[in-house]
Amino acid sequence: MENIPVLGNSAQATGVEGYTALIISTITSITSVIALVMSKYTEWQRARLEQKTLAIELEKKELELQEMRRKLQNT
Questions:
Q1: Alpha helices, DSSP H only, in 1-75?
Q2: How far apart are CA 55 and CA 47, in angstroms?
Q3: Angle at 73 between CA 69 and CA 75, to 5 degrees
């Protein structure tokens, strides 16, 4: 007997494989975008925390300066 490929089954398999590849590609793309957004969000949070830390440090220095001015005025 001769092996005759059945085109319908082969085409259907290719369609399913293509559809599966498309789904996997879409999921990979979405995951990459989410990872990028989370990375940028983390970077933004780090910068915000650094800004708050610097603001606290500035406030402490201003208080020290005010205290020194008071001491100078009292002497």
A1: 7-74
A2: 12
A3: 120
What separation, in Å, do the N-terminal and C-terminal C-alpha atoms of the chain show?
Answer: 115
Q: Six-digit token pair at 18?
A: 């293509």
Query: Cα separation of 73 and 62, whole Å?
Result: 16
Residue 43, both tokens? 């970077």
What pLDDT, on a 0 to 100 scale, did the predictor assign at position 2? 57
Interval 13-40: pLDDT, tens: 567 888 999 999 999 999 999 999 999 9
Considering the entire predicted model, what is its pTM?
A: 0.58
